[in-house]
């Protein structure tokens, strides 16, 4: 019997708003200076919630959202703010923890 594998899709495993918020928080901690990593994480959350609805709520085109949030795009900070707001998420700032 052949083993069938498929590519992991994070969006399939983000079911609740709490899971989505925790996922984004973990990605923010892990990303360092990698803005594309954060954009991709938002894309995962957006696909879990529904890209069509997100496009309606942000006033941005669905295809442009897919591109901007793919990890390959370069979304403006204004787009990131619109997306996080429409997803019901907040970005937080805290002093950086230094080893010590």
From TrEMBL:
- Pfam families per UniProt: dnstrm_HI1420
Where in the numbering of this chain does the HTH cro/C1-type domain appear?
51-94
Q: SUPFAM superfamilies in the record, alphabetically? A: lambda repressor-like DNA-binding domains
Q: What is this protein called?
A: Addiction module antidote protein
Native organism taxonomy: Bacteria, Pseudomonadati, Pseudomonadota, Betaproteobacteria, Rhodocyclales
């Amino acid at each position: 019997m052949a083993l069938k594998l498929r590519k992991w899709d994070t969006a399939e495993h983000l079911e609740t708003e709490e899971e989505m918020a925790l996922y984004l928080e973990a990605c923010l901690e892990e990303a360092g200076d990698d803005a594309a990593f954060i954009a991709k994480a938002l894309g995962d959350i957006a696909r879990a919630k529904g890209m069509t609805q997100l496009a309606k709520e942000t006033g941005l085109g669905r295809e442009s959202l897919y591109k901007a949030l793919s990890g390959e795009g370069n979304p403006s900070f204004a787009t990131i703010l619109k997306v996080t707001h429409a997803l019901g998420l907040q970005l937080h700032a805290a002093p950086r923890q230094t080893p010590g």
